[in-house]
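Predict fold of F-box domain-containing protein; 451 aa.
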Amino acid sequence: MTGNMSTTIETLSPELLSEIFWHCVHDHPNVMHVPRRAPLMLGRICSRWRAISISTPGLWSTIVIGRHPASISVNNRKDLDAAIVWVNRSGTRPLTFCINELGNPSEGYGSDLRQVLEFVVSQSRRWGKLLVTLPSQFMDMLLVPLMEGNTPNLEDIQSQSILYGDIEGFGSWSFVLSSTPHLKRLKFFGAPINIDFGEQIHRVQTIEIGSQPHGKFSLLDLLQCLLQCPSLIKLGHHIKKSSPAATLQHALPNVIALTNLRYLTLTFSATVDPYLVFDRLYLPSITSLRLSMSQCTQTDWPYLASMLKRSPSLLAVLHLQGVPMTERTLIECLSLTPKLEQLSLDGINCSDITLSALTIDDNENVNSAILCPYLSNVDFGPPCLFSPHAFKAMVFSRWSSDQTSDDITLTPGRPSLPRQWFELVVMGRRISGPRVRLDHGPCGNIAAGGV
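Predicted 3D structure, encoded as tokens:
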């Protein structure tokens, strides 16, 4: 720093410099401990900057553990030393811990890592955000404060367990959601954990639970989640167990309303049928729905259409896998989604009837009569049986262009109906853009590919 610039900076108050320093801290945890980045770099400029940076708690409230090229003991010991320094400088600020250890615990570094995790657990009452990727054998240490209700300030927990060996014992762990009154985001992937929703209303906005070995989440648990987390914006879950219909009907209200829910992803294991839940759902803000079922005993599933009829037509993304549905029911669902942009179907038998319904007639003057006018991405999985004529008519009705070159300028077919670049996937093969080759092949009657 030289001349007037140096003089100006030296006249800034410690409070203003502290605020400037806070904005220098990188959001990505990978660079928090890099000497050439803030906060460490700030202490190398001059003694005044060092004193101010050390006395600014916000610079030290994010602690990174792991993310080393190799998981060896010396790295764990350095992590522990750094974590102690960071916590001591962070004052009383809520703490963010970013923990990323991928090594196999059988490699012998476990005792040093456990010392680091014990220190992290000792700060659990100050946890504000916990971002964790760990071998499953170490994850239980971090779950203990959750089970004991010792995380009063926690707002965000994202956990990924790397599975090594037997983890069956995790199925007995139960996380009482009311023990984290400020929690807004909850993500668990890997080792199973049970969530106890209790009888309270929770303010959590995101719940994502991945497929977990030995998981015990049931339809009744899903119902409790929907009823007691009305602030949900995003929900993703794998439901492993069914629940007696009589039990569900006793607990079900006439309408299950989640007015803020925008993203819903549900996977149901074999024979688990959520029809009683979907027959009551009211989702006025839903924009993305991904629904996967397996071995459902019903031959037709009209409950999605029932839900769509109750909810405003904002849905932009619809993925259906294994949902038993006739073409008539499918087309009824599509008629209730005028804002739909992406459609993926797997396990639904589609024929020329579906293609005909999706084909835009240029002679049609009423846009409201067009099925899914904004649809720009379609994925037809098996089984599908299309004739070349119907397939070609649907594809080419979904775009228009004034040029035939690679540099396409899309033009709307009518002023109020924008035609977008259209992409279609049939049986895993993709066509995109206006240059298409249609050949007879093994995918029903059609094989599709770009040229």
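Residues 401-420, 432-451 have pLDDT under 50 and may be disordered.
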